[in-house]
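This section describes the prediction task in plain terms. A model, or a person checking by hand, is given the sequence of a single protein chain and must write out its three-dimensional structure as a string of tokens. No templates, partner chains or ligands are provided. The sample shown here is typical of the held-out split.
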Amino acid sequence: MINKIKNFLKTVWSYIKAHKIKSSVALIILIIAAYFGGKYFFVKEDEQTRYIMTAVTKGTVEFSISGTGQVEAAGVKEVSSEASGKITYLNPNVKVGNSIKSGTLVAIIDNADAQRSVNSAELAVENAKDALKTAQIDLDNLIGSDQANPEVIQDAQDDLEKSYEDGYNDVSSAFLDFPSIMKDLDSILFDRSYNNYQKNIDYYYSASLVYDSSAENYKISAQNSYDKAKASYDASFAKYKTCSIYSDSQEISSLISDTYETSKLIAQSLKDALNQIQFYQEKLNDSGIDIPSTSNSHISTLSSHLGTTNSNTSSLFNATSDIENKIDALDNSDEEIRSSQLALKSKQQALQTAEDNLEDAKDSLYDHSIYANLSGTISAVNIESGDRVSSGSSLITIVTTSKIASITMSETDIANVKVGNKARLTFDAVEELEVEGVVSQVDVAGSANSGVVSYGLEISFDTDNETIKPGMSVSAIIITDSKEDVLMLPSAAVKESGRGYYVQVLNKEYDLTDRQVSIRGVASDTAPENKEVQVGLMGDEYTEITSGLEEGDQVVLRQSTSQTTTSTSSGSAGNSTRTFNIQGGGGAPSGSFTGPGM
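The expected answer:
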């Protein structure tokens, strides 16, 4: 059998050597057929957008701040007041030399001051809510019902179009008056009302020259201003004839501007003509000569026309100014929306601050009992029953041998930390060890280093572990705010727009316990819809949902694009492999979460 195969291969090789050209062509055709055949029969690619889903659950939302520092021996520590007021109770065992344990009641402070703080904080919250409501109304009025076509922009465009229409109507009104005004002006200056050999302008000049050589100046002014007015009138009137109220805004704007300039030149021409005739009459009066009625008629006509022209000039000026103002208003409408959105966000932040202050005030109201923050021996007692103390005052001093975590934080982070906040501590030198603790002291004043201000705080350990030594590096996660048993979603599922917060939902529900659904996501015939929600505490990984959704409601966490490659051969079912390219949604923020897992 082997010999037969060898003989066959020799025969084939001999044929190829004898027919090189034919063999090369056959090989090329075979390669091309294999390439395109394989692409057609073996590979079929498909891209499809899929949605990774999640559901609203109940649990605890936490907001924390991280810091690092070192383990220290506590030494001498102060127990300070967290509220202002009168000492109504002092533990009789709180005496110099006595031992005291962490958590022992030291004193009780009357909460009258705290109650006033609560009342003031409640008023601040109500004022902040009113301000937020007003800001939301202002933004809604600007945007209207269609966010893609804000009402303030549409109104500004409508106002601008109306200004062009009004301006064109002012031009039309002016050109109802100008023809007769120009005709009368031409007649008064250039007709021969007094004799057949002199135009009126020349008559008024020569009759005045007898008495005053400055008559020539009045004639020159009247002649020149008329020539300018006539040329401007002819040009703008020709433009007016070719323009209509349906012309484009640029053409109407140019017409209004030209007509305004024409109106000013006509008014000047009327004034100069009046000046010449009035000068003539003054010289006759000075000489005791009767004034001809013709000149009185000329003055009356010119005065009437000057009043009409001045009125048209004022209307055209107002039209020009109005168009400029409306153009500015349209240009500023986008900025107006942005300013209103910023104002709304500012009011939201102000409300959050007011609510935080109210919570702090309530904490002072109900936490007016002062407890020892660590164990040790009392070395000093600084108060007596009946004393009034202020927030931060030292009540007693404790000497202790227990350990604490000394943490340094920035000025922005320290503002959110207060005594009593719970903390979780880990240590570089002791792997997998986590110790619970509580913030026992926060520096009132910070220290500056190269322009950077930092503050120190101390965390006392709930339990003393022998493996923890002074000088060890420690990392602390301080829980500054938390809410238990609330509706919540992963923060990546909650989006923010200028109008507030929203989630994306599909038009059907899915079995999220199905591993294929949770990993691959789901396909949908329709795009997700945006649904507005109200949020509360925005934690490290999860966000509280206060309205808009119920427990179990499903929302889109993120989108993914799946690429499917299916290999098939004739007569057999193909095997498939699938890869996912994750898009959108962003990574989950770092931090901690206590509650049901997703």
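For orientation: The radius of gyration is 45 Å.
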